[in-house]
Amino acid sequence: MIFDKNKDKNVQTTLSDIVRGMLHSVNCSQEILDQHYNKIIERFFYPDGTPITKSFNVDSERCVEIPLITLINPAALALKEIDLEMSLHIDQVNAKKDMYSNLADTPVRGSFNVSVVPSTKSNDRQSDMMDISMKFRAIETPEGVSRFLDEFIKNIGPKHCEPKKD
């Protein structure tokens, strides 16, 4: 853990660990978006796949049955940009070879062991603080979801209904 105040000082955190963690967090935002669309679809269908519908009377002889999923706007927000600000102290630099390459002439790369330190911008900032700014944007409904909804919309139309008995 990079922000564990009780952290053993012998445990090394690398800059790569931090970057991987940040990338993982950003990638999770896409997974959340995927789950959003799945939940919308699940909410408007019975377990057997039949859409949940509502019947409306057009007049005394005709009615229209509308799948409720066609009445929603499945809009969503997606992560557009993330700004992350933190100060790191480089504790040690190690030379490493690419562990995925079997080539003899694989270049050596640096691996930075780091620790988080207070920002130079603020005297009262704690070392376990990080400034994060996220910007979201409205996104178009995925084409697959739009086509899926279009198939239900095409089938909406009045049909003959039995008159209601009072």
Could you explain how this protein is built, in words?
The protein has 2 helices and 8 strands. It has 166 residues and is an alpha+beta fold. It has one domain. It has a 3-stranded antiparallel sheet with strand order 1-6-5. Strands 2-3-8 form a 3-stranded antiparallel sheet, with no helix packed on it. The radius of gyration is 28 Å and the shape is elongated. The termini are far apart. InterPro entries: DUF2589. This is DUF2589 domain-containing protein.
Mean pLDDT: 79
What structural class results from the helix and strand content?
alpha+beta
Note the run of SSEs as H and E.
EHEEEEEEHE
Side by side, the strands of the main sheet go 1-6-5
Q: Could you state the oligomeric state of the chains shown?
A: single chain
Question: What does this entry show, briefly?
Answer:
This protein has 166 residues and is of the alpha+beta class. It has 2 helices and 8 strands, in the order βαββββββαβ.
